[in-house]
Every structure is written in C-alpha cells, then in structure tokens.
Specification:
Growth Hormone, Chain: A, 395 residues, mainly alpha, single chain, 84% helix
Length: 395
C-alpha cells in the first residue's frame, strides 16, 4: 500500500502544480471570469465523461494499463499547456489533461481497496487521501513560488516531467492482474464505451439507495463546482493577495484536508459513512459562505484551514459507501467511475454559473449561492438513512 500511495503522491504533485493556480494563469492571459468558467467547464466535461468508461475498462483489463495510460496522457496535456498561450490550444490541452486524470482516478481507488483488503475501508481511504493531499499541499505551495520565480510555462513543463516519471514508475511497480481477460484491449475499450451509459442506468434502476446517493452527490457536486475555480481567484481579487500568498492559501486548504483525513477515516469506521457524509454536506454549506467573508491573509488562512477540515469528511465516507454496493457483476471501479461520471458531468455547468454570478453580482456571490444549493444534498441522503433505519428496526 505504501508503494501505491507513493506513486499517486507523485502523480498528484504533478497535477497540483498546473491545476491549483490555473484560473490565475488564465486571468494573466487576459481572459475574463466567464471565459475562465467556460474553459474549466470544458476541463470538467473531459474528466467526467471519461470516468464511467474508465472504471468499466479498469474492471475488464486491470489497473496497470489505465494508470500508466492516464499518467502518460496527463503528462502530454500539461506539456501542451506549457506551450499554449491562445484560448483554442489551451482548451485542447485541458481536454487531454482531463482524459488522462479520468483514466487514473477509478483505477487508483479500486487498486487501494484491493491492496488493503480486509482492513477498515474508511481508514484505508483516509491514508490514500492523505498521500494525495500531501501531494496537493506540496504542489500548490510550490506553485505559488514557481509561478512568481520562473513563470507558469516552466512550471507546467515541470508538472509534465513529474507526471511522465510517474507513468514509468507505475509500469514498473503495479502488477498486471487481469491481462487477457477481455480478449484484448481494443475489444475491452469498445465494450466499456458501449456499456457505460446503459450499464450505469441499469445499475441505478436496480438499486434505489445507490440512485439516492447519486442524487445527493450530484447536488453537492453542482455546489462545489460553482466555487472550485474561484477559490484561488477570490484569494487574489477578493482578499487582494499576491500570487505566492494565493499558492499558500490553496496549500493550507489541502493541508487542512490532510490533517483531518485519519480522524475522518476513523470516524467513518466508528459511526458509519452516511452520518459522516451528512455532516460534510451540512458543514460545507456553512464554510463555503464564510470563506467569502475573508478580509485579509490571516482570516483567509484561518477559514481555509476549517474549509479543508470539513472537506476531509467527504472521500473516506463517500468511497466507503460506494464500494458497499459492489457485486460480482458490478465491480468497485465500475461503481466509482459511474458515480464520478454522473456527478462530474452534472457539475460541468458549475464553473459557468460561478463565472456568470462572479461577473454580474460580485466576488462573494458564487460562494453564497453554492452553499444554498448544497444544503439540498442532505435530503436524499436522509432518505437513505431513514430507509435503512426502518429495515433495521423491522429485522
């Protein structure tokens, strides 16, 4: 497990280097907030639309091919970004990067659940998340200093080199576990693409709880996607920080998540994933709105740390719930990929909404709107919890 976490630490350092301050980079290319929202919407689309076929393909051909291919494609996308200064080429580069990351995520989560079979899944995913978030802390903190000292283009080039190295390492250390099961990669790719939409619909129709969980995560995804691109922009434009301080703010956000991951994993295992996910939804609505009240560096640091701690409640609980629904017919990566695809696809519109509200109403408006929308994510999750409580009382 330590080797797998080290691999994904490397992947996410590279990814965080280009992504954490990417909206600020677009601002320096002369783009307004609405165009920034559109570009990030396109990035989210490329990421989300590939999740479901990626998860299905991973369950067919194994984890290693998807992780190696994903890291390689992500490296190509970030290399392209280092050479891009026009809107058209930037859009194409982020599409490539999104596809690369989408190939990695379901396989990474499924690999962790298999490597750590038999342990408390909440704690296992918490350890994995710490590795990812530690990488994000390092990457985003370094991004601020690197953007100021060597510029964004060279920083993107460094990101490509790191991610390319991760692809080579993945090929060496991850064993081939399913090779040949699907009768060849080409047929597996075709079948995964063909079955991703119909298979996901069938899966949700056959499991009411999974459908309700998807609804809750969709609402949460819309709320978060409204604010996500504008967290670093608010730090620069709303709090008036310089780019190195913005990098520090994003780094501390990730640090807050990392610090709370192990406690969140233990809480998930002790009290249940659904109560922890509900707490995450409620507290997220509050802290998103409060972030928009930051007025200087000190207040921004304090609030973003709380922001991160609240965010830490999400993934250990979410992934634990998802893999509970895995069956012999529907693998773990398929469920993770399918739900991530749905939530991400619906969340595609978030950056566009956030950009429009930012432009028309003000810097704080996206955060207040997102907090209001996110509160409704509690409704389907409470329905699941009430239904399970009734079944338990009957039995």
């Amino acid at each position: 497990m330590a080797i797998v976490c080290a691999l994904f630490f490397l992947v996410y350092v590279g990814n965080s280097l280009w992504l954490s301050l990417f909206p600020n980079h677009l601002l320096r290319l002369g783009m307004d907030s609405l165009l920034i929202g559109v570009i990030l919407m396109i990035y989210n689309a490329s990421l989300s639309l590939c999740y479901s076929p990626s998860g299905r393909l991973s369950d067919r051909v194994g984890r290693r091919p998807l992780i190696v291919a994903g890291a390689s494609i992500l490296a190509v996308g970030t290399l392209w970004l280092s050479l891009s200064s026009r809107t058209e080429t930037t859009v194409l580069a982020v599409v490539v990067a999104g596809i690369g990351l989408a190939l990695l995520v379901p396989s990474g989560n499924a690999l962790i659940s298999e490597v750590a079979s038999g342990r408390g899944s909440g704690s296992v995913f918490a350890v994995y998340q710490i590795a990812i978030l530690a990488a994000s802390v390092v990457g985003s903190f370094a991004a601020g200093s690197l953007a100021e000292s060597v510029g964004f283009s060279r920083m993107f080039l460094l990101s490509a080199i790191i991610t390319g190295a991760a692809a080579v390492l993945a090929y060496v250390i991850i064993p081939e576990t399913i090779g040949g099961k699907a009768g060849g990669y080409a047929s597996a790719v075709r079948e995964s693409l063909r079955s991703s939409a119909s298979g996901t619909a069938t899966m949700l129709r056959s499991n009411r709880e999974l459908a309700l969980l998807t609804g809750a995560l969709v609402i949460h995804s819309i709320g978060f996607s409204i604010i996500n691109p504008f967290i670093p922009l608010f730090a620069e434009k709303g709090i008036h920080l310089d780019i190195s301080q913005v990098g520090m703010i994003i780094s501390l956000w990730n640090a807050g998540i990392a610090i709370a991951q192990i406690p969140a994993g233990h809480l998930t295992d002790r009290f249940g994933a659904r109560p922890l996910l509900l707490a995450h939804f409620v507290l997220s609505s509050v802290v998103w709105s409060v972030y928009a009240l930051s007025w200087n560096l000190e207040s921004g640091i304090m609030i973003i740390l709380i922001f991160g701690i609240v965010a830490a409640l999400d993934m250990p609980a979410r992934r634990t719930i998802m893999i509970e629904y895995a069956t012999a017919e529907t693998g773990k990566a398929t469920i993770i990929g399918s739900l991530d695809a749905i939530t991400g696809t619906v969340g595609i519109i978030g950056p566009l909404i956030g950009g429009f509200v930012w432009e028309q109403i003000g810097y704080a408006a996206p955060f207040h709107l997102a907090g209001f929308i996110n509160a409704f994510a509690c409704v389907p999750l409470l329905a699941i919890m009430r239904s399970r409580a009734k079944r338990k009382s009957v039995s």
